[in-house]
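Quick note —
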Amino acid sequence: MFNPELYFYYILLIIFSTFTYLFYRRTKDLFKTLLITITVLFFVSVVCSISLALNYYQSLKPSTEGVGISNVVAYWLIGEDAWAPVWTIQLFKKAYSISLWITLILFGFLIILLFMKKTKRKM
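Predicted structure written out below.
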C-alpha cells in the first residue's frame, strides 16, 4: 500500500533501479554500476536533506501566517497532496529525519564500496 510518509523512499527506489539498470546494461560491470549509482544517489540525497533541513528549521521560527514550505526542492519532495491536508512542524521534522537516514545509509554504502574498490586494486 502506498504510504505518503515514505514518498521520498519511493522516489529514491525508482531512481536507484533506473540508474542501476541503465549503467549495468552499458558497462556490464556490476561493481562499477553500483559505485556510480550510489554516488549519484548520495549527492541527490544530500541536496534533498539540506533542503528539508532548511525547511524544517525555517518552520521553527514563529510566524503569524503559520508554517509553510520555504524552498522549491522541499516542495517537490513534500508537495501538497501526498502528505496531509495540513503542513505541521512534526511533518517537516519527519520528512527531514527520513531524508537524513537515507543519506547516512547511502554514505555507509558508498564507504563500503570505496573500501572494496581499494582492496580490489591491491589484489
